[in-house]
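Translate sequence into structure tokens.
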Amino acid sequence: MTPSMLYNHRFIVKTLYLNNNSINRRRRRLQFNRIQLNRRIRLLLVPSSINILNNNNTLRRMRELPPQQNIDDEFAEQLFNGTTFF
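Result follows.
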């Protein structure tokens, strides 16, 4: 290998390495963004009245909870208008 060939080889290897590095960095950033988005979406899907930590245990526990009974609309409206007496 002549010195110029060696230099070119080094240059190519270095360029490939740097290029690959930036691609990997971008890939990691995208992956992180995807995870963050998934977390946000998962939090949005859960009833907002319950405060949730960002961990799977809480979400798993919530899935096991029985579904909450909804107050019927008429009763809710009366409550809102203040026409219901207890």
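Note: The chain has three helices and no strands.
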